[in-house]
Amino acid sequence: MKPRLSLKQHIALAYILLAVTLAGVFGLVSYISVGIVEEQIIDVRLAKMADGLISSVQQDQLPNAPADVRFLRDANIPQALRQLPVGIHELTLANRHVHAVLREHGGSRYAVVQEVDELAHTELIILLSLASGFAVSVLLAVVLGMLSARRLIAPVVALADAVQRNAGSTELPSLNAHDEIGVLARAFAKRTDELQQFLQREQMFTGDVSHELRTPLTVMLGAAEVLTAQLADQPAQYATAERIRRVAGETAQRVSALLLLARAAETLDAPRTVLNVIIEAEMERYRPLLQGKTVECRLEWREQVTAHVRPELAGIIIGNLLRNACQHTEQGSITVQLGAGWLVVEDSGTGIPQRVRERLFERFVHEGHWPAHEGSGLGLSIVKRVADHIGWDVRLETVPGGGTRFVLSFPALPTTQTS
Predict the structure, then answer these.
(1) pTM (predicted TM-score)
(2) Which CA distances in Å does 349 have to 162, 285, 287, 334, 370?
(3) DSSP of 259-277, one letter per residue?
(4) Per the domain annotation, does 79 fall within a domain?
(5) Does residue 209 share a domain with residue 346?
């Protein structure tokens, strides 16, 4: 596809086209004017002169022709002129550029001839001057067009730079300008304020909700621990209490992760985290979802993989992908492959419908189409949001023969080989 011209180039091109048009029209008018002047000065003058000289001959008077004009009659007329019809002619005669008027009167043929080499030279100079003026006009239009475009575009470029570097609404240039640039700058400032206020409200809401949930979760976790200790000698009740304790602890970790999401990405510390441990913990967490199913869940890795990331945030991403795989796979296998800089979660389920794939990472879009497993539709949108927040990339790939494959990419760190 042919690249479009920039605004600066459009303005410069407009200058050039205007100069070409005006200079071309002026040159054409000048050329026509030279032709008209030539006809009026030479041809009309020679025609009048021929009538006067012939009249003098008819009155038996000696014709008085100017020094630069030759008056010829009958046999004195050159052969090249005898062949021409009566009228005014422009031709080369004896290597001279001449204008000639031919007349016939009283059975005689007359010719009035004037050399116009000097006039032709003058005409050539005029045409060369017009061509030079045209070239200079175009060149001047190019220079003025580039200078004017640079000056006109400078406020737009400054505004674009300010927007690109996320400058505050009060830091945008041309806010007080009364032209179109000022209108655009004020519109950007208003939009920036609205976005910043929305982001601030969202961060405050996420932080407040997460903070409010921490206290009841702490109470639940403490009560679950006490209950677990009291039911140590009752295996059936102990398993239930232990599960409550484990889920409460995991929920508390998720709330802590949401608190981290409420903070700006550049303010988060990113310790060196071993992802193998997090994956194993998440696999163990969602293994109960596979009870009663003929599904094999396995982890494949050859090395210890680390990344600069908060464990809570990495757990949200990996956990949501594993939970989806466990929920939507009724038989077959779930494979988690880990390598330096990448993580693949693949299952042998029925896959994701094409109509859902295009909007998979949007909020409230369900990953599957089984009524028994439909949830809030937030899982993968959270995965996408967390991945963007920490600088990771998540994508869905097509699996031949059905199933689902999610691929995570992240900055790789030096790995440790296992024995």
Answers:
(1) 0.50
(2) 48, 20, 16, 9, 11
(3) HHHTS-GGG----EEEHHH
(4) yes
(5) no
